[in-house]
Amino acid sequence: MQPLPTRLALVLTALINAVVGLWALLWPTAFHTDFPGVRTGWVAADGPFNEHLLRDFGGLNLALAVTATGALLMATTAAARWAGAAILAFNLPHALYHSLHLHAYPEVIDQVLIASTTWAAAALGLLALLWPTRGTT
User: Fold this and answer.
1) Which among 6, 18, 38, 129 counts the fewest CB atoms within 10 Å?
2) Can you tell me where the transmembrane regions are (predicted)?
């Protein structure tokens, strides 16, 4: 069995990535203009609408949701670590990009929310990858 923090990281990743992935894949125009929903325009602030790119982004997020869900169902440390590596491989460059491009968002609240949420997503991957095991494989 995976430690509770690992399972929580995988559950949060699966849920968040499933919602983001389905939204971007099924309704790319709405995703472009309305993401994240509470505050709007985060995607639109960074460039013009690109349906292909947004649908690919949606598919990537769904793939991460499936990966995290698979690791949860397998319930092994090895599966959690592989999922954590995949989650981190996407979210670390994503967080770095946004941290270096906060100037695209004129309101400080958006800058803080974008930086904190993207780094939190990377932290979930790191947690799943590195959390100590309890003698499981």
Assistant:
1) 38
2) 7-26, 57-75, 82-100, 112-131
Q: What is the mean pLDDT of each run of 10 residues along the chain (137 residues)?
A: 92 98 98 93 94 97 98 94 97 98 95 98 96 63
**Burial zone of 67 (CB within 10 Å; 0-12 exposed, 13-18 middle, 19+ buried):** buried
Q: How far apart are CA 63 and CA 53, in angstroms?
A: 15
Output the 3-class SS for the chain: CCCHHHHHHHHHHHHHHHHHHHHHHHCHHHHHHHCCCCCCCCCHHHCCCCHHHHHHHHHHHHHHHHHHHHHHHHCCHHHHHHHHHHHHHHHHHHHHHHHHCHHHCCCHHHHHHHHHHHHHHHHHHHHHHHCCCCCCC
Residue 38: per-residue pLDDT: 86
Q: Amino acid identity of 120?
A: A
Burial pattern 18-56, b for ≥16 Cβ within 10 A else e, equals: bebbebbbeebeebbebbbeeeebbbeeeeeeeeeebee
